[in-house]
Amino acid sequence: MKLENIPQIKHSNSNNFFLLAGPCAIEGEEMALRIAEKVVEITIKLEIPYIFKGSFKKANRSRIDSFTGIGDEKALKILRKVSETFEIPTVTDIHEVSDAAMAAQYVDVLQIPAFLVRQTDLVVAAAETGKVVNLKKGQFMSPESMKHAVRKVEECSNEQVMVTDRGTMFGYQDMIVDFRGIPTMREFAPTVLDVTHSLQQPNQSSGVTGGRPDMIETIARAGIATGVDGIFIETHFDPANAKSDGANMLNIQYLEKLLGNLVAIRKTVNSFG
């Protein structure tokens, strides 16, 4: 994948990591535009290539009464408005084959959730849209096995593919990032570290996923030091009241300081050649 081929991407020649960031789910137009405006301001200042992230629906829920979205088309139209307002690319995740063509009309990057990355029909449907495809590594998969998912995209004549590590299941209620997997996956595709989902604590007895947001900077720093191409962070102005994944999201007030520190680390890493 060539970063500069993503529509409306900025600072692709800055030699910086790129950023996928935004709320877990689109809760409404005002919140999406507000978050995007803040992240755009920060990334322009730090010369970080930026892709706005927001799920148009949430399908992988522990409980049937969990928030799943505000309506597919309504949320997708908000993603398009974010893109048009700030002239930035957007990414959303898809869950069914029929989602691919629909979402491709509104966003620039289609993301395959970790639980679904072995679903061949879904991966192929995303690849055949011609959009960039972001494959999230299954919590149950080795880094080496992700090359097969990448090949599925490439064999559909789509070279625009990246992979994202979001941790590996450790026991029943915790995730671990094995940083040895970063250079392995970078051999066959640009590699992103999903910092916030790597800090999830799933399968809680309440049916609501927990998290360790206090460890976000620790994991992010290690990712940059290991050489990841991109960083994925879910962020919100009020994580405690977010409708999805609030327990592991970063409060947006801390984002600029975090990204500034990561840029400094990246410059040091680049100096090593």
From TrEMBL:
Pfam families: DAHP_synth_1
This protein's pathway: Bacterial outer membrane biogenesis; lipopolysaccharide biosynthesis; Carbohydrate biosynthesis; 3-deoxy-D-manno-octulosonate biosynthesis; 3-deoxy-D-manno-octulosonate from D-ribulose 5-phosphate: step 2/3
InterPro entries to which the protein is assigned, alphabetical: Aldolase_TIM, DAHP1/KDSA, KDO8P_synthase
Signal peptide coordinates: none
Major localisation: cytoplasm
Keywords, alphabetical: Cytoplasm, Transferase
Family (UniProt): Belongs to the KdsA family.
NCBIfam families: KDO8P_synth, PRK05198.1
Protein name per its UniProtKB record: 3-deoxy-8-phosphooctulonate synthase
Species the sequence originates in: Antarcticibacterium flavum
